[in-house]
């Protein structure tokens, strides 16, 4: 009789259709007076985002986040590689009808009022008046500009936060399936950030695919299903936040006494807290415990700790010896 062997556990495939996929997407800018200098802003990026997913692209200043976004939207031409958005190559007109985009620093005709700029955008999409009248009112409400006379004010009288909100409304005028947001929280005060998060979460609840660039890692952690980190144009990791943080977990220790130089060799982010050394173990916990006597240290506590996204981000960048 054949021995019964348990089938190996297969990962459950994600059945959702792919909203965006890039294949070795690369961008090299030419700069300098004679355009002889080259900046490699994106290096062979392979990224996949499923429909209905909220995806955050993280990276330091100049990492290539905006370049990535502009490249997949067809605003910037890739030097190599390709991207497929909603099943079509970059620049497809029908696809453009189904996407919304909030640039990092949106430019508006600032003599138009909030209502007029939305009317103008609706016109660009060919949305009939009977449809856009209601939609504009709903959007003005959604982005929190329905109070007072904001809709009637010219945009030159808007604050940075108000401009960001009207930019968000503009990005949603065509009721897009995929929304691209470049630093949507930038320039917002804490209440504004909270409201922007709520708007993004409501779009997520409607099943829209949301892609956004951000520096504000606490927001990303609250909103995103998956993230990727770009560093100097290279993708250094991507995955579900839960999985990435889970893999990066380590032991957090509290230690009494001990030689700080020796402790630093074994404990990351070592600092003093309430008279104890505190940090995260670099290597094996058993080895560390065995070496405590040598370091003249006493272990007060040891616990499994998941880093938050900010710690994870810093760790990833440091591991590349960049930060
Ligand atoms: N039009 C351009 N011409 C030349 N170089 C450019 C151009 N746009 C961007 N770059 C360069 O490409 C690199 C990536 O820039 P990008 O704006 O994509 O980064 P980012 O991650 O969005 O930065 P930030 O967070 O500061 O907005 C930088 O070195 C930048 O100087």
UniProtKB/TrEMBL annotation:
Segments forming domain ABC transporter: 20-257
PANTHER family associated with the record: ABC TRANSPORTER ATP-BINDING PROTEIN ALBC-RELATED
Record keywords, A-Z: ATP-binding, Nucleotide-binding, Transport
InterPro entries hit by this protein: AAA+_ATPase, ABC_transporter-like_ATP-bd, ABC_transporter-like_CS, ABC_Transporter_VariousFunc, P-loop_NTPase
Annotated SUPFAM superfamilies: P-loop containing nucleoside triphosphate hydrolases (SSF52540)
Top-level taxon in the UniProt lineage: Bacteria
Name listed for the protein in its UniProt record: ABC transporter ATP-binding protein
Classification via SMART domains: AAA
Keyword flag Transport: yes
A molecular function GO annotation: ATP binding
Pfam family, one: ABC_tran
Species this protein is from: Romeriopsis navalis LEGE 11480
Keyword Signal: no
């Amino acid at each position: 009789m054949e021995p019964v062997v348990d089938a190996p556990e297969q990962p459950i495939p994600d059945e959702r259709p792919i909203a965006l996929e890039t294949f070795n997407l690369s961008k090299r800018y030419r700069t300098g007076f004679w355009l002889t200098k080259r900046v490699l802003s994106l290096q062979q990026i392979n990224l996949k985002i499923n429909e209905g997913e909220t995806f955050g692209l993280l990276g330091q200043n100049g990492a290539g986040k905006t370049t990535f976004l502009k490249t997949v939207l067809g605003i910037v031409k890739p030097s190599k590689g390709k991207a497929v958005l909603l099943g079509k190559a970059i620049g497809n007109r029908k696809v453009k009808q189904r996407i919304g985009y909030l640039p990092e620093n949106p430019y508006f005709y600032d003599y138009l009022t909030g209502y007029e700029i939305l009317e103008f955008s609706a016109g660009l999409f060919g949305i009939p008046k009977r449809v856009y009248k209601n939609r504009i009112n709903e959007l003005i409400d959604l982005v929190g500009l329905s109070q007072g006379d904001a809709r009637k004010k010219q945009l030159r009288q808007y604050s940075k936060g108000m401009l960001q909100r009207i930019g968000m409304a503009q990005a949603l005028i065509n009721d897009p399936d995929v929304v691209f947001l470049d630093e949507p929280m930038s320039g917002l005060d804490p209440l504004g950030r909270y409201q922007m998060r709520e708007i993004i979460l409501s779009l997520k609840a409607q099943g829209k695919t949301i892609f956004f660039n951000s520096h504000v890692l606490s927001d990303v952690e609250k909103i995103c299903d998956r993230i990727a980190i770009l560093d100097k144009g290279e993708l250094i990791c991507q995955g579900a936040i839960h999985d990435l943080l889970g893999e990066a977990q380590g032991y957090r220790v509290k230690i009494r006494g001990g030689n700080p130089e020796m402790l630093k060799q074994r404990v990351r982010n070592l600092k003093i807290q309430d008279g104890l050394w505190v940090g995260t173990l670099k290597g094996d916990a058993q080895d560390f415990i065995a070496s405590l006597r040598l370091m003249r240290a006493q272990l007060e506590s040891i616990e499994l700790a998941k880093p938050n996204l900010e710690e994870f981000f810093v760790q990833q960048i440091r591991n590349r010896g960049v930060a």
